[in-house]
Amino acid sequence: MTSKLVAPSILAGNFANLQRDIEMINQSDADWLHVDIMDGVFVPNISFGMPVLHAIMRHALKPLDVHLMIIDPDRYIKTFADLGADILTVHYEACTHLHRTIQAIKAEGMKAGVAINPHTNVSLLEDVIEYIDVVLVMSVNPGFGGQSFINNTYKKIKQLKEIIVDSGSNAIIEIDGGVSNDNAIELIEAGADVLVAGSYIFGSENPVTTIANLKEQINTQD
Ligand code: DX5
Ligand code: ZN
What we know:
alpha/beta, TIM Barrel, binds D-xylitol-5-phosphate, binds zinc ion
């Protein structure tokens, strides 16, 4: 069994002290650093843009998992590649020509991720699943950290897993929103490969230990 990954979301970090939080993630067992970019249009919130991402990049040692919650993301694919994104995830709901967008992300040397909102049926990915590296299943409505996990996500993961296996795709499944030690095992059992966690990690007393425990928890069950 390949190992299951943990991706702390810096959205829940201390924006007045990002360097400290990124160095904490560097030293932890985290696999990826999840970075949320919001434009205030696709989602009702603005997070941060290129100058902040550039500053994050200068300190980050973990692979950068960039989650774009922006309309028309094609405009910025090259910019994010130049900024050092390793995985670039766009929203299904924000792309008119998703197949083309996926190709453009890969052409820039990044892994292509496609995120789906809670209301988006996984079957809509069937015709592009073979090209996708990561499917990010939103388990809250995107835009804010600290929201409650939507239980319908388990069903979606199982359906998605079936689509991936049937198509022979190598896509892995990432879950984002309301993840904690309460639902981690069930998510992995449903078919998840990567868990994003923001407030659960940064709201804990010792984030490094929380990451280590979460990582151990999801890798010691079968
Ligand atoms: C929400 C973001 C998430 C967020 C998760 O729109 O995409 O990555 O940071 O935060 P928690 O883990 O607090 O739900
Ligand atoms: Zn995210």
